Amino acid sequence: MMAIRELKVCLLGDTGVGKSSIVCRFVQDHFDHNISPTIGASFMTKTVPCGNELHKFLIWDTAGQERFHSLAPMYYRGSAAAVIVYDITKQDSFHTLKKWVKELKEHGPENIVMAIAGNKCDLSDIREVPMKDAKEYAESIGAIVVETSAKNAVNIEELFQGISQQIPPLDPHENSNNGAIKLGRQTSQTGRRCC
Amino acid sequence: MADNLPTEFDVVVVGTGLPESIIAAACARSGQRVLHVDSRNYYGGNWASFSFSGLLSWIKENQQKTDLSDECEDWRKLILEDEEAIPLSSKDKTIQHVEDFCFGDQDSAEGVEEAGALPKLPVFGAPAAQGETPGPGKESPAAEGIPLGSQPSPAAEGVEKENAAVESPGEEPQSCSEAARAAAGDGAGAAPGTGAAPSTAAGADSAPQPAKTDTAPSENAAQEPKKITYSQIVREGRRFNIDLVSKLLYSRGLLIDLLIKSNVSRYAEFKNATRVLAFREGKVEQVPCSRADVFNSRQLTMVEKRMLMKFLTFCLDYEQHPEEYQDHESSTFAEFLQTRKLTPSLQHFILHSIAMVAETESSTLEGLQATKKFLQCLGRYGNTPFLFPLYGQGEIPQCFCRLCAVFGGIYCLRHAVRCLVLDRASGRCKAIVDHFGQRISANYFIVEDSYLSESTCTNVCYRQISRAVLITDQSVLNTDSEQQVSILTVPPLEPGRAAVRAIELCSSTMTCMKDTYLVHLTCPSTKTAREDLEPVVQKLFSLNTEKETGNEELEKPRVLWAVYFNMRDSSGVEKSSYAGLPSNVYVCSGPDSALGNDCAVRQAETIFREMFPAEEFCPPPPNPEDIIYDEDEIEPEESGLNNSPETKPETSAEESSSEGGADVTKEE
């Protein structure tokens, strides 16, 4: 059986660029025009094969905390990758993308895989951000970049496949969870009770 | 602000400490519209944790006593005739007597000034400064892998290192501040010529070969701990998550129960505290607390092992044996222990390290209760009763805030509240006015104590907590494993003082850089934090860097950096002590001095129940399919994956997992 690796992925980008839609498309293969701002969902999961491993993405949504620039540092903890989303029809959202990258570098883990998604590419007739700009910027920060359409299911799978490929293979010598304890799960730890 | 904040809510919560965050989560979870604000630019208030540079900024902010702007009170115009305003405080006055020290600095004050001047994004600046400046090596000789360029180094490495360790008076401070500035990216423009000469002359890091600077000190790491310099601490500053409060989670305490029940636990990971330590006759020893520990202990005799096991077994169900302690109910626990067949060292272990109660004040029953609580928490997650959150205690409030946000709560940091608006007729608070002059109305208001003005708190009598945070170079008790999380109680060094609680964290807790330890000291204040805690620091650690003072000092861990401060303890204040607060305004206290978090959880639950007596407090989240998927297309089918033992338990634990459905759709 293939080993399952849990990979936390956090989503970044301005309100309304389609962060939740991208995840919805990826996880449920579903698109809703009137998606309500993510109520009640902490993270979504989807498992994809990658080489000899299965990558189980735990995709965290901002839960709206980005709206007034109040994302908590805990949001970034332990993320293997970040998907930073902008809207190709809104130049502003591309500008703020850089701020998100900066914040990610400040608070995020050092070796985090960065993927930039220029969403809403189905609306390329009202495009404001040239693909070339995004490519150049992504190159300058060592990020993957694709233009996506959550609505038409364009490049969504590819986006996450790209992330999967960038994740370094598990180092067998490295204890992946470093002895950290998750509460509320069935732990195999029996523990010795006094008396 | 790009987005407009709604102006009508059910509950407005001011302050993002632990109790406020739990209440916010509970309210949002029960369907209330919640606005949660904090005037600071970080979560947690006095429960926050900081990177090293973040802590330096915090220190600087709290050392500046000047109230910069006496607020213009424009908002008063917004108050109508049938209303009254209760102004809130614009300046946090809960932190006092902040003193920080960089050891190895002769003139510590100067070093602090330099380091404190760091901009908010030192971590960010570091790589930039190294990459962009023409001669980065000159400014930051300690920088990794950076050629030292034209700096000649006449002396041999080994000799120099000796010198640096033994005596570097006057020069190291410069080296510190230089490196700090360089690491902060601030040094990019600074004249490297002038700064470089003295800093490299300090010799600590000026190896003759490029790229050897960092590896050099590790060469004799076999014997001695790695020598970490201040500049390295600054450069690796983001590896630190330094808590303002020092607490642990009892593995069967209220906070753990709440985390699990509400499913907030999924947002955090924990480490077990690995050791309970005692300080007796000038030595640090490990306290055997579990059955296995007792039997494996080499320090206890066979007789002691039996005594201890017998006593602990009794404590686990002491209520069933009243005859054993009845006669001692009026005496202290310490006196009670003397009547039991226990050697002095066992009495010490039980009193100070297991029960952790005061020697002169705590009654027999308090001691027995505390001992029982300790024993009951053993074994749930490990060999000690305690857990510590990865990245620090400061994560926990943020986790509850996330739950609140997930259920629709709106978050605004850097959002100050000028006043509460009181409706004269009803006597109830009906709105707040924020720093934009925006009026936001709600039915209930939760305000953290530090936001209340002096006139509101004029009759309140606060206690204080003395805190110290040290960065040290080795553990107070070295064993084969470096990665230990230890709790140590130091009994009062003189009568009338309180015992000091020390928690030592290793780098795998993600709160400090490799090869360092983070030590938190806490006690209820009698004087300033430094006066209360420095005697203990001197007992446990070596503060000397200039001169070696005998072998004993050498064995002790060295303090590399330290900060002392007093924090207001607003726990246990009755609401009636606050003047003029309407009934629909609730006050949350800041952190208390206890080890656990029960006080905060209890307070949050009490306030929530007063507001919403009919609602459940933080119930488990509903089934994921109930919230997100109202489409019939996705049936939670069982795929092969879901049947695997690894994923099975988690599927139900996650709010929205669709691995089953999605995978099936994809594969078909």
Describe the protein.
- Chain A has helices at 19-28, 91-107, 131-141, 156-166, and strands at 3-13, 43-50, 53-60, 79-87, 113-119, 144-147.
- Chain A is of the alpha/beta class and 195 residues long.
- Chain A has a six-stranded mixed sheet with strand order 2-3-1-4-5-6, with helices on both faces.
- Chain A is globular.
- Chain B contains 24 helices and 23 strands.
- In chain B, strand 1, helix 1 (18-29) and strand 2 form a beta-alpha-beta unit.
- The radius of gyration of chain B is 27 Å and the shape is globular.
- Chains A and B meet through helix 1, strand 2 and helix 2 of A and helix 10, strand 8, helix 11, helix 12 and helix 17 of B.
Secondary structure: elements and pairs:
The complex is a heterodimer of chains A (195) and B (668).
Chain A: E1 3-13, H1 19-28, E2 43-50, E3 53-60, E4 79-87, H2 91-107, E5 113-119, H3 131-141, E6 144-147, H4 156-166
Parallel strand pairs in A: 1-3, 1-4, 4-5, 5-6
Antiparallel strand pairs in A: 2-3
Chain B: E1 11-14, H1 18-29, E2 34-37, E3 49-50, H2 52-63, E4 83-87, E5 95-102, H3 108-116, H4 122-132, H5 136-139, H6 157-166, H7 172-183, H8 192-201, H9 230-235, E6 242-243, E7 249-250, H10 254-262, E8 270-272, E9 275-280, E10 283-286, H11 291-296, H12 302-316, H13 322-325, H14 333-339, H15 344-355, H16 364-377, E11 386-389, H17 395-406, E12 410-412, E13 417-423, E14 428-434, E15 439-441, E16 444-448, E17 463-472, E18 486-490, E19 500-505, E20 517-524, H18 529-540, H19 550-555, E21 559-569, E22 585-588, H20 598-611, H21 624-627, H22 640-643, H23 648-653, E23 656-657, H24 659-667
Parallel strand pairs in B: 1-2, 1-16, 2-12, 9-18, 16-22
Antiparallel strand pairs in B: 3-6, 4-13, 5-21, 7-11, 8-11, 9-10, 13-14, 14-15, 17-20, 17-21, 18-19, 19-20
Helix pairs in contact in B: 1-17, 1-20, 2-3, 3-7, 7-8, 14-15, 14-16, 15-16
